[in-house]
Write a structure and sequence with these properties.
The structure is a homodimer.
Chain A (H helix, E strand, L loop, with lengths): L1 H19 L17 E2 L3 E7 L6 E5 L10 E2 L1 E2 L4 E7 L5 E8 L2 E3 L7 E4 L2 E7 L16 E4 L1 E4 L4 E4 L1 E4 L13 E5 L8 H4 L3 H10 L7 E4 L25 H6 L2 H26 L9 E6 L1 H12 L6 E5 L7 H10 L3 E7 L5 H13 L5 E5 L5 H11 L6
Parallel strand pairs in A: 15-16, 15-17, 17-18, 18-19, 19-20
Antiparallel strand pairs in A: 1-2, 2-6, 3-4, 3-7, 5-6, 7-8, 7-10, 9-10, 11-14, 12-13, 14-16
Chain lengths: 391, 391
């Protein structure tokens, strides 16, 4: 046995040395390791080694104009460029460096979020606002099953979160939240940008939310899965090609307009209730979505008013007629949680929806936050309404 | 209904425009979209827009010296730098750009592999060698459950692949392959660099491999999960701190030397057989691992000779005594698949192991490939031995 162990140990060392060459955040030759980002109580320092760069800048999502506003970095010892800025308010931000005009990720930062097709370094500023955004002690399981859609004509990838304890309580059944992303997103948006697993893990661990399953589908009817899997998209008609749209049959138009929502309500819900230990009742089903997903949420509540007892459109586009609202009242909706940022470009629509719900006498929560059409709001909304579900 | 749809459509357009700003591979103002990488029959062109760069180079894992060898790129129209190189042999490669000395990912490429803490753009060159590395038509499910380890004192994250059809055949039970990563890797290494899901999906779809579950644990005893989750590592003794090691009790030393392998065999295997529809028999259990994971594979086969009927050390460090080999013979091992590259720095060890197995009369497959200690070999080995399992 000793001989094996010694051989094995030698190999470990050799392999470690080899792999070290692959790790950009490894310090060679006794050089001080570069730390980035480095947080203090009131500041954060970013560092990047760039030997031959002429200009290095920092771009961060907390800056007044995140698209164009940048901060110059200064060349220091060993060509490590750095800048120290005031610590932004507790939240999750993304940032990158501009090296002679080209966007570069921070090689020192292991925390990365995927936003559409990009991977961006993440800055989590600790505080009350973000206390549920880091890793909890007890972790749920994240999985990616594929369901078959007859409506959309393809197998499609889902993201499913099952809560801590799911594996150890094989008789227990759980309520389900269907959580929908916005335009530009996919089935990974909520789990990456939205920190769904962390938020639910923390809320459940603290006893603030019921243990629940969360299902995050891909809301782009022409996609089987996130573009990172490189599966060709399916050509589909759309409502903006007016000439072609006018020539379609009613069924074809419905597919274009409602295909995904119909797949969600008549294919994904049954798939989940067959393959997971889900309680198959309206009182144990919630639907929530941001932006385009908020539109999907409203559409689903109109097309299938009896399916979900909890309905949460977030920063959403969409509206409803008095008859449609009456149908929801009649179906016995337990929570209607309407949320929007007060500088969101869709805020006026949220105000109007709030007025309509009030007019029609549908009890609802109208949750208005500071800020606009951004992930900081959607994390806040999830962290808020998840505590109100299934109670 | 019409009113909803129109509102919704307007919003979709507005949101699309907003999100477009976030997508770096979106072409603005009628500029031609940049395509990178662009493959032809015999060449591949890489492109990067870099307005203010002085020197832009390409670094690729297929180049003669991937650590230091780079190829100059040339500035063209609109400051799009490009280079066209001969198409390398069919395989998966990673590459990046050096912009004035700083490594930059290709913003046009949606295919990305995670290697340790880095995300690198991926180049898949089509051909016979890689025909199972792209997406199949039928997809298995990838999940990340957490098991509790009493031995290592923490909850630990796993990657589990269940084959296509698992959800639709609720009575069917499956054999299980335990697939172990090397030093520098974690529970995501095989699924990302190793293309495990794609290889198994393709082999199973073609009827070349038995439908099986594949379990990919984290083999670093001090880690709960991949470093990208930022969970603090647990301080643990190690064998190279000789003074401290000498003072340990036998039990403490065993934990340091074999803690992970014991957790794998006595905690992970039961967890999988409880929570998945796994056949709980040696004839339905396989173990395989690369490099350090090959060492773990050999250790597991020595410590628990009756647990696995299929044993596949790949580019491995490790050896065994005549008695240990005899124990495997006695246990009735069905396949011993020993693989190594002929330029691997561990090749001599593989040769010696092959000689020992031959000497002791343990039937085995000795699979020698061209090349060294690299993922192209490990994908090839998985694609090869997976076809031999459970038959």
């Amino acid at each position: 046995m000793k001989k094996i162990l010694i051989l094995f140990a030698t190999c470990l060392l050799a392999v470690s040395a080899l792999h070290a060459q692959e790790l950009t955040n490894f310090a060679f030759g006794g050089q001080k390791p570069i730390i980035s980002p480095e947080l203090t109580q009131d500041s954060v320092t970013f560092r990047l080694k760039a030997d031959y760069a002429t200009v290095v800048k920092l771009s961060g999502s907390w800056l007044p104009n995140p698209w164009t506003g940048t901060i110059d970095m200064t060349r220091g010892e060993n060509n490590v460029w750095s800048v120290t800025v005031p610590l932004p308010a507790p939240e999750i931000y993304t940032y990158y460096f501009l090296v002679d005009g080209v966007a570069v990720n921070d090689p020192q930062n292991v925390l990365v979020q995927r936003d559409g097709t990009r991977y961006l370094p993440m800055l989590l500023v600790p505080g009350e606002r973000t206390e549920n955004y880091g890793e909890a002690h007890q972790h749920g399981t994240v999985s990616h099953p594929w369901y078959h859609s007859n409506i959309l004509g393809m197998d499609r990838r889902l993201t499913v979160y099952t809560p801590y304890g799911y594996e150890n309580n094989p008789k227990k059944k759980y309520p389900v939240l269907y959580l929908l992303h916005g335009a530009g997103g996919d089935e990974e948006a909520w789990i990456s940008m939205g920190r769904t697993a962390q938020i639910l893990d923390n809320l459940i661990e603290k006893g603030l939310a019921e243990p629940m399953i969360v299902v995050m589908p891909n809301g782009n009817a022409n996609q089987a899965a996130a573009r990172t899997l490189n599966i060709p998209e399916k050509p589909m008609g759309n409502r903006w090609d007016r000439e072609a749209f006018a020539k379609m049959s009613e069924a074809e138009r419905d597919l274009v307009m409602n295909g995904y929502v119909r797949s969600l309500c008549t294919e994904i819900v049954p798939f989940i209730e067959k393959n997971f230990r889900a309680i198959p009742k309206p009182a144990s089903r919630a639907i929530a979505g941001l932006s385009m997903g908020g539109g999907h949420t409203i559409s689903a509540s109109i097309l299938y008013p009896e399916l979900f007892d909890y309905i949460c459109p977030l920063s959403a586009a969409g509206s409803a007629t008095p008859e449609q609202i009456a149908a929801l009242k009649k179906a016995g909706v337990k929570l209607y949680f309407l949320a929007c940022g007060n500088t969101d470009f869709l805020f006026q629509g949220a105000e109007e929806m709030h007025a309509k719900l009030t007019e029609q006498g549908l009890d609802h929560v109208y949750f208005v936050s500071d800020g606009g059409h951004v992930w900081s709001n959607w994390r806040l909304y999830l962290n808020t309404f998840a505590q109100l579900l299934f109670k």
